[in-house]
Each structure stands twice: as structure tokens, then as C-alpha cells.
Amino acid sequence: MQVSEAFNLISHAIDSGKPAHGYLLCGDLRGQCDILTGKLLKKLFPNEIAQVEKRAHPDVAWLEAEGKSRTIHVKSMRDKIVAPMSVTAFSGGWKVGVIIGADRMETEAANAFLKTLEEPPSKTLFILQTDSPDAILPTIISRSQRIDLPLSEGVLEGDAYEDVREVMEEVVLCETVFERALAGKRLAEILSSLKDEAEDEDVAIVRKAFYKTVASFVRRSMVNGSLPLFKAFRNLEAVETAYRQSEKSMNDETVLCAMMDRMAFK
Predict the structure, then answer these.
(1) Predicted confidence band at 38 (pLDDT cuts at 50, 70, 90)?
(2) Could you point out which of 69, 155, 247, 248 has its C-alpha 20 to 30 Å from the C-alpha of 102?
(3) Are 96 and 125 in contact (CB under 8 A)?
(4) CB burial class (10 A; 0-12, 13-18, 19+) of residue 75?
(5) Residue 149 has pLDDT above 90, yes or no
(6) 3-state secondary structure the chain
């Protein structure tokens, strides 16, 4: 679902007075999830946009993973989400709790949040962002409305694009696991080279563009009918899964070889 479609869906629910208590946004945390969250907050607080953009609005509580383990602990959950969301709204309107990386909640934190999600105060909305929805407590998922967002726009250009194109066109002819692993290794080498050339702050952008480029070749099988749709969608899911794993700093070669192993080309 595109951001515009998701925003219209949630916006209509808010306007009709029947929004879900929680919305689980699945996608790129620093891309589409962030964009949609911003649009929703500006809708709910149209007169305090400057505060919203600075994350300084008193009725918006923020929580994200912390420390080397990138974990959301129960104390942080209680202090930054549960307690703030239980008091009356400063502006007399909505209160919103935003959890970035909701899949990083430890068990106790997830259980503490679940109690609030099950019986939230009136005019309370929770926005959960994740790139790994399968890691979230099933009971939280069942009490939230899931919104799947696409990878952000932007593809590679020039030689980098041609390098990816060559691998993706050749892999269609691969017949063995070993050949697929070699293709995954070649893609990892391309990505590694791009990351080495990029400035530190641009590495995430380069990685996103790389996976978007791979996805663009996968989508061609949907257009030209070279694969049954269920296989084409499975391939696209494999690319998006690989992208989300790579954002967690997993080894690129391992991620891309696993991606190739999951994909179907015939």
C-alpha cells in the first residue's frame, strides 16, 4: 500500500470516529514509515506542526530501541509510553504514542504495552513502526491494523545499475544452489563496493537504492508474465525481507545468498 493510500484509509477512520487503537506500519523505518507517521501527526495536530516536527509536542510520546542491543526495555516502555499516555491530553485532544522498531520490544515491555493497547484512554492512537513484523508479539498484531508499505523510491544509476542488471538477468539461467549462491555473492560485492564509496551518512540511502533496483527487476516478471503471480510475489517478498535484514547490519553476502535461495525463476 502506498503512503497516500494508507494515509487516506487511516484519516477516514479518524474522521469517522472509528480508528484502530493501534496501527502497525511495516516498512522502511527511515523512509515510508516515517513519512506516514509525520502525515498522521500533522493531521491530528494541525496547529502545532512545528512542535510535531521537533518531536516536542506534549501529547506525542516517542519510544525507540536503545543501547548496543537495540532493545526496548520494560522501564522505557512504562516511562515513555504507558505513563504519558495515561494522563489527560495537554491540548485537550488526541494523544499519540509512536514506537519505532516495535519488533525490538523485550517480552516484559511487550506485555506492559499490550495492557495499554487493550484498554486505551479515549482519543488515543498508537503508531508502531517495524521492518520485522514477524518478531512482534502475536497478541499485539491481532489488536492492531497492519499497514504494509513499499520500499522507498529511488534506484541505482549508471554502471551500478548495469552491474545489478547483469546479475539479475543471468540468475534466471541458474539451475543449481551453488550457482545461485555465486549470484548472491556477486550482488553482495556490488553492494559492498557502493557502500565503500559512499559517505557514512549516505550508506543507508545507497543500500535502499540497491534493493530497490533488485526489486525493479523482480517486478518485471509480474508485467511480462514470465512467472506465475504467486511466484513473482514470493520473489518480491524475498527482496523486501533481505532489505529489512540488511538494515539490521546482517552480513550482506549471507542475506543476499539466502534471498537468491528463496527466489523462483521458472
Answers:
(1) very high
(2) 155
(3) yes
(4) exposed
(5) no
(6) CCHHHHHHHHHHHHHCCCCCCEEEEECCCCCHHHHHHHHHHHHHCCCCHHHHHCCCCCCEEEEECECCCCEECHHHHHHHHHHHHCCCCCCCCCEEEEEECHHHECHHHHHHHHHHHHCCCCCEEEEEEECCHHHCCHHHHHCCEEEECCCCCCCCCHHHHHHHHHHHHHHHHCCCHHHHHHHHHHHHHHHHHHHHHCCHHHHHHHHHHHHHHHHHHHHHHHHHCCCCHHHHHHHHHHHHHHHHHHHCCCCHHHHHHHHHHHCCCC
> Model confidence over 164-179: pLDDT tens digits?
999 998 888 887 999 9
Phi first, then psi, for residue 197 (nearest 5°) are -80, -20
pLDDT tens profile 51-72? 998 999 999 999 998 765 678 9
- Widest distance between CA atoms in the chain: 63
Whole-angstrom distance, CA of residue 157 vs CA of residue 105? 38
* Beta carbons of 200 and 206 less than 8 angstroms apart: no
Rg (CA), the chain: 20
| Lookup: cell for 239 | 527482496
Which of 149, 133, 146, 130 is closest to 2 using CA atoms?
A: 149
pLDDT band of 222, cuts 50, 70, 90: low
Q: Report the alpha-carbon distance of residue 261 to residue 266 in Å, rounded.
A: 13
**Distance separating alpha carbons of residues 175 and 139, to the nearest angstrom:** 41
Please provide the distance, in angstroms rounded to a whole number, between the alpha carbons at the two ends of the chain: 27
d(CA 179, CA 174) in angstroms, rounded, equals 6
